[in-house]
Amino acid sequence: MSSIIVAILVFGLIVLIHELGHFIFAKMNGIAVVEFSVGMGPRLLHIKKGETTYSIKLFPLGGSCMMLGEDEENPDDRAFQNKSIPARMSVIAAGPVFNFILAFLLSLVLVGISGYDTTYIKEVTEGSPAYEAGMRSGDKLLKINGENVSMYQEYILYKLMKPDEKMNQVEFSRTDPQTGNQEIQTVTVTPQYSEESKKYLIGILIAPENKKAANAGELIKHGYMEMEYDVKLTVKSLGMLFTGKASVNDLSGPVGIVVMIDDSVKAGLTVSAVAALMNVISMCILLSANLGVMNLLPIPALDGGRLLFLIIEAIRGKRMDPEKEGLVNMISMAALMALMIFVVFNDINRFI
């Protein structure tokens, strides 16, 4: 039960921040907001202040910032459709951007308390391709084939997404023990095939080493990297879905997310309450980054689709037919709801 409450709070925070982005920029651009709500379905609580009704609804799985003249013609000067294209684009883009800002701020908290894991090379097998290329234990791995792997999570993600890719070019840093100066080197290696692991290896063992941010600059740097990692994870997961390496059966909906949050809380509590809180914050960062990326997809009914319509309007020099645009958005929303229902039932079947 406690995990369900935590999940509701997480969902509520992420949706609130997203809709708050739309709300703030709507007000900044002189657009009338009819209703600002967290949740979907029937209203549980509501209060009207000025022109806006603020609502909390029954199902904590969404939210909305309903603006005057958002989907229909309205002669009022404060109607959404009567504002300039840049003004409307800023309002639409603000929701995903606020999710990225939330993910970044939470990443600062996570890194500030828990630190960050680096990719130090614990061991280099003597005579291996890496050893012959000049790599030694104590070096810090930075890039593999041009892709950043300076965080341990990035290294694991690289291995997960590209298990069969050969490490032909490796960038690493080495610290001079006497001066403390760092030297960055890039070497070319020729991986050797291992019959034991059935993979091409270069002969290094990576061990994560947890470090604390030494100053504000380092905290901001690694906080941004933490947020960036979750964005990359979302984008690469979508790429796997579109290329057929993953299927819709691998998607998780609200039920799956509640289960994951529950598992994170339980795993953290075996260590301490702080560890459980850090796990929840980590999940919140991932979900907020995920929502930001997903909403920027150029799909009608999502923020990305609405931005696409505005770009088309800017190119054409006139609005698309509101009825046709509304019909496309309605069909897209129906398809998204059908997908959500499928994912929910898939979650239930998977976990029961």
TrEMBL record:
Its cofactor is Zn(2+). CDD domains: S2P-M50_PDZ_RseP-like. GO terms for molecular function: metal ion binding; metalloendopeptidase activity. It comes from the Bacteria. Its EC number is 3.4.24.-. The chain crosses the membrane at residues 91-113, 269-291, 327-345. GO terms for biological process: proteolysis. Keywords: Hydrolase, Membrane, Metal-binding, Metalloprotease, Protease, Transmembrane, Transmembrane helix, Zinc. Belongs to the peptidase M50B family. This is Zinc metalloprotease.
